[in-house]
Write a structure and sequence with these properties.
Catalyzes the synthesis of 5,6-dihydrouridine (D), a modified base found in the D-loop of most tRNAs, via the reduction of the C5-C6 double bond in target uridines. Specifically modifies U20 and U20a in tRNAs. This protein is α/β, with parallel strands linked by helices. It has 2 domains: 8-247, TIM Barrel, CATH 3.20.20; 259-338, Four Helix Bundle (Hemerythrin (Met), subunit A) (Up-down Bundle), CATH 1.20.120.1460. It has 14 helices and 8 strands. It has an 8-stranded parallel beta barrel, surrounded by 4 helices. Helix 11 (259-274) packs antiparallel against helix 14 (317-338) and helix 13 packs antiparallel against helix 14. The longest helix has 22 residues, at 317-338. The termini are far apart. The relative contact order is 0.11.
Length: 339
């Protein structure tokens, strides 16, 4: 969009995932791609305003990074937006898509799709407080809401108050009858509806989310929308991010970082964090999928799981696990040469 404050990294982003995309995970993912937009886990206004911990901590290496905010009170949302801007976040995203009971009981998340006026009020209040972009992540509907007119009726008031970027998970959220886990898979995907929504609101930067597993699939979606967001697939197979800068951002000089380099960098990071009292497993758990689909992948996961949890707290954990992977790969190569 011309004259937009939106960051070009929205072409590809990693979804906000509760209990997963913490600051250690984001540090790890940033090593694999310099261009990808990263999102925090959802943080509620209550946690920021009344919580005793620092829920907004992030490292400078994570930029560009978006805070995903959960809430529905315009005054609280505006206050948190101001705090987030002061802390240095690039953008703020309003959660209107999460179907969990915790979210529903707090009057935010997917249930807000039934009250677009409240979401619009939050956007307006936040935009009056900050200069950074305010964006929204939603579903294509909830429960018996009509996916066609209902979705249009939800988006229109948001655009009227200046929404620039909308991320749409191309599934409904069934708040009645399905668990949060089931809501990630059971409601059918409807990518075509998101494509039509983009045509309807052509001036709004629109990203698509839900069930996307490969960069080839992402390229197909990018023929219809402005951005692609991937979540669980990136977490389970993070090394696919190493190709994003070249494949999706056209960085011809981008060289995919090696797994060995990632392990060395993460080991240095773990040592630094360990010296500050952070448990090794809180960081190492995010790297379990680094060798997904590769020889030694199971050995990598098994070694980390067996030697990283419980009372174990060895800052050299990743290096020791990699030694086991190299031994296994060497054995596999010798076996194939002799047979």
């Amino acid at each position: 969009m011309p004259d937009s404050l939106l960051h070009p990294s929205h072409r590809f982003s990693v979804a906000p995932m509760l209990d997963w995309t913490d600051r250690h995970c984001r540090h790890f993912l940033r090593l694999l791609s310099s261009q990808t937009m990263l999102y925090t886990e959802m943080v509620t206004t209550g946690a920021i305003i009344f919580g005793k911990g620092d829920y907004l901590s992030f490292g400078q290496s994570e930029h560009p990074v978006v805070l995903q905010l959960g809430g529905s009170d315009p005054i609280a949302m505006a206050k948190c937006a101001r705090i987030a801007q002061e802390r240095g976040y690039d953008e703020i995203n309003i959660n209107v898509g999460c179907p969990s009971d915790r979210v529903k009981n707090g009057s935010f998340g997917a249930c807000l799709m039934s009250t677009p006026d409240i979401v619009a009020s939050c956007i307006l209040a936040m935009k009056q407080e900050v200069d950074i972009p305010i964006t929204v992540k939603c579903r294509i509907g909830i429960d018996d809401m009509d996916e066609e007119q209902g979705l249009t009726d939800f988006v229109s008031p948001l655009v009227d108050v200046g929404l620039e970027h909308l991320i749409v998970h191309a599934r409904k959220a069934w708040l009645q009858g399905l668990s949060p886990k089931e809501n990630r898979d059971v409601p059918p995907l409807n990518y075509e509806r998101v494509y039509r929504l983009k045509q309807e609101f052509s001036d709004v930067h629109m990203s698509i989310n839900g069930g996307i597993k490969t960069l080839e699939q992402a390229k197909v979606h990018l023929q219809h929308v402005d951005g692609v967001m991937m979540g669980r697939e990136v977490y389970s197979n993070p090394y696919l991010l190493s190709e994003v800068d070249a494949v999706l951002f056209g960085k011809t000089d981008a060289t995919a970082v090696s797994r060995a380099d990632v392990i060395e960098s993460m080991s240095n990071y773990i040592r630094e964090q360990h010296s500050q009292g952070v448990r090794v497993w809180h960081i190492a758990r995010h790297t379990l999928g680094l060798f997904q689909g590769q020889p030694g992948g199971k050995i990598w996961r098994r070694y980390l799981s067996q030697n990283g949890t419980g009372k174990h707290n060895d800052p050299a954990l990743l290096l020791r696990a990699y030694e086991q992977v190299l031994i296994a790969q060497e054995k596999a190569q010798t076996f194939s040469q002799n047979h």
